[in-house]
Amino acid sequence: MIRLRKDAEVTLFPSHAQKPADFQHWLGSLRGRFEDYLTKQGLNLTKQRETILHCLTEADQHLTAEQIYDQVKKKDASIGRATVFRTIKLLQECGLVDEIASLRGSAKFELKADRPHHDHMICVECGRILEFQSPMMEKFQDEAIRKQGFTALWHRHEIFGRCKLCQKQRS
Amino acid sequence: MIRLRKDAEVTLFPSHAQKPADFQHWLGSLRGRFEDYLTKQGLNLTKQRETILHCLTEADQHLTAEQIYDQVKKKDASIGRATVFRTIKLLQECGLVDEIASLRGSAKFELKADRPHHDHMICVECGRILEFQSPMMEKFQDEAIRKQGFTALWHRHEIFGRCKLCQKQRS
DNA sequence: GTCGCTGCAAAACGTTTGCATTTAG
DNA sequence: CTAAATGCAAACGTTTTGCAGCGAC
What we know:
Two copies of one chain form a homodimer.
Chain A: E1 2-4, E2 11-13, H1 23-40, H2 47-58, E3 63-64, H3 65-75, H4 81-93, E4 97-100, E5 108-111, E6 119-123, E7 129-133, H5 135-148, E8 151-162, H6 164-170
Parallel strand pairs in A: 6-8
Antiparallel strand pairs in A: 2-7, 3-5, 4-5, 6-7
Helix pairs in contact in A: 2-3, 2-4, 3-4
Chain A binds a DNA duplex through residues 42-44, 46, 48-49, 64-66, 78-83, 85-86, 105-107.
């Protein structure tokens, strides 16, 4: 028998990551983690890669590759699309960035960094992405994984529907 | 306080839908549901649409549009890709087919029909898709949705990793 | 000088669409 | 006769790739 308090089940996050108080220090630490990974692979942290990471830290929402590209262009107009895609891939490999599904079309990305794991509710009307976390859900998920003899690497859990505002506008 | 039996938490499904004992009757009922939907929309159940639905009922795994197209061609070589895509879309609209994400590339589809809701574990090595269901997970998910004031339309929960066999081969 | 990195353009990929033709009631 | 349905090929949006030139150690 499992007992649990009704209160502790679900945590909501604001729709975007909170910026750490010491932004510069945070940015530096991410930069360091990226550089470490690249070095280990025999690669380098170039100006372009740094710019792209920087844009991701500044963004307060989930961005498509194209949106990241737009932001990056503001800092350095010479950077090409291909570099953005290639860099996002590197950031995913080293665990700094996560891909989340969008309703249709292009993928969206978020800076995972040190944030706790969470899942997403995606509004099909306005595209807004809400985040939530439920340790209990994780628990039962782990149970299923164990039962199946599966080795989980990552997962995504996306709920599509209408956010409070869009639902209200409909009625 | 919520109490629950440790046993009843997670149900595994075989990696594909069990075929009903009376296949013909089942097929007929799905066909009927499709036809009802089409009629309501002022559309018709054509030979092509019937063939595509038939292929989906025969498949015992999750198929991409291209794989469905291949199966369909065996029954009627004249059917085009576009018709397959268009028909899958209709089947989704009337709730007979669900789309599930594949690791990369094309979407995969499954015949939802009367099957209970379930989620997926996707093996990144062999592509095998395992299914599981956990009422408790749904419960906490609903809790999160309620807290957020969200109106859920559908969701998907996909765990990527290695299945038992592929994991064994690695070690 | 080497090897990685880049931007560009072209290719690849899965999916959708426009259109002329066929089909069914 | 009309409206829907089809197959084809072209278009689409996103992502990947080939390649020649650039740049950093």
